[in-house]
């Protein structure tokens, strides 16, 4: 079937409701231009389906055309909710002159980084080598065999548009000329750059395991970068500080040094108070553009919110600060209300941009307020304290509009306005719902409804941890729904896939496996359902089979995946923990439960493949946390419940769940069939029984269990003593 026929068939399938996203329209409203991306399912690729640029999806067809025509590939990588991707599309990819030049001198390729993190990681590495920075849109120029020779991020369309950046058309003309006249130089540069990213992405051969001093060094580094005024790390942009916060809380647990707890608690509070936190609707935006957490980049990512829930749950357990529980619950409510697919699973993101009443796109419009809008939603003097507490008076914060945020403790605001704290808190809760409902009349930002396995794994963890810590069955039900969705709708022939929209996406990557495994372990700890431990162990075996490196650690792509110019072995954290760091933590947790020495060996090999004495620990927060967990000598907590359920079970489970015990893994099992059926996976469960008909805790370490404890009041001592 010809390309034209395939496009016509797809247009018929999409139906009359389909609206082309372009300014180039025929008089009848149809698109003037349609390229191969129209045949794709990715929301990001579809956004570019009607550019005048003759885009190709990544694949053999584009590579073959580049070789056949001896043209370089222009590969542009982004994602559906990326603000600057939209800007560059509007300025450059919708520009007919630029499109014609691209189509003539290059083979243009679009990549959704969320579907193909392997491609993104390789070429992000190239741009970082070239420029010292990175971001999206990521624009790289490749030889026909896929080797990069030039790249950058956002380019304005023409010289002078956004000084001092060179115009994209000027860059294209210069590169086309160099490629035509100095091909040997281009090929040499491409080979050298490919070698550089191969070295950067490969980790090292497993060697000596770092000791406790290395963990202390990491904690000291995070302490030194701490912003004493606003929490988090100094400077801007400021990203959610989930990973260092958890490391600091654990350092306080281990050492008793109060400064570590203060830094973590201050950071969690500052993020919760800031404009980065959606005060009306719950959830967090991508990052803050300033040091104060005030003006965010307004997109919302599933992974950020899942990681933040886990951080706030841990913060609540470590400090007993009720605000952290409230923030976690509001974030989970947002996820359930706005991000859960009816069929199961959670969507990936919402856009930063939304339409104003006059039809123009503006970043943050949906989440911000004019004075007139506030007067209409919260009229009269009775809301004065609310407007004051949410900083909705005085000079607007962002393009003439207000961003709700908190500058003082609720007690101070209550005192200032002559109110009881409880009275003010009731007013604030009411106002949040009024503002949330009022903005539903606005055009909501685009939701990218792609369901990504890795990010849903993080979400399983978030709901499971919150459900366990807060004793909330609704959260546990959500975690189990999502876990079953992963098993049924993101898996085919036993192989986990990366994503699902209308159909299954690419084969799953390392992070898809490791994040889902972590979610299953958390779900087992929260429910005691052996299904999830069994599934976690099976997926860990598959991870070893598909991704293991001979030098220790794991590759990003499976042995059955597409061969690219290098096979990445990710170790450093970015917006997400690295796949290897989560793998290491999974292995140590599973070893603590099962006593399987092979799991310990694999975990140690993973850590030592990246952490070395001469490396800075700063980019390895999650891997440091895994090392910290191992060095602490983690315990498996076997909670044996009587065969016949009773109210005592609830007290025992909730008491254990309320402890801040980051160096433990819990196995709640019911006496009888549960303990017998789990003996193969949990040898320590053999022969374990309840005492005096009451739930009984057995703290175990490396296969040896301590004295059983049946008094919930004594659980804390049994768990926390060395």
From TrEMBL:
Record domain Spermatogenesis-associated protein 20-like TRX: where: 34-197
GO MF assignments: hydrolase activity, acting on glycosyl bonds
Record keywords, A-Z: Glycosidase, Hydrolase
GO biological process, one term: carbohydrate metabolic process
Top-level lineage group: Bacteria
Cytoplasm listed as a keyword: no
InterPro entries: 6-hairpin_glycosidase_sf, 6hp_glycosidase-like_sf, Ssp411, Ssp411-like_TRX, Thioredoxin-like_sf
Keyword Hydrolase: yes
Protein name, as recorded: Six-hairpin glycosidase-like
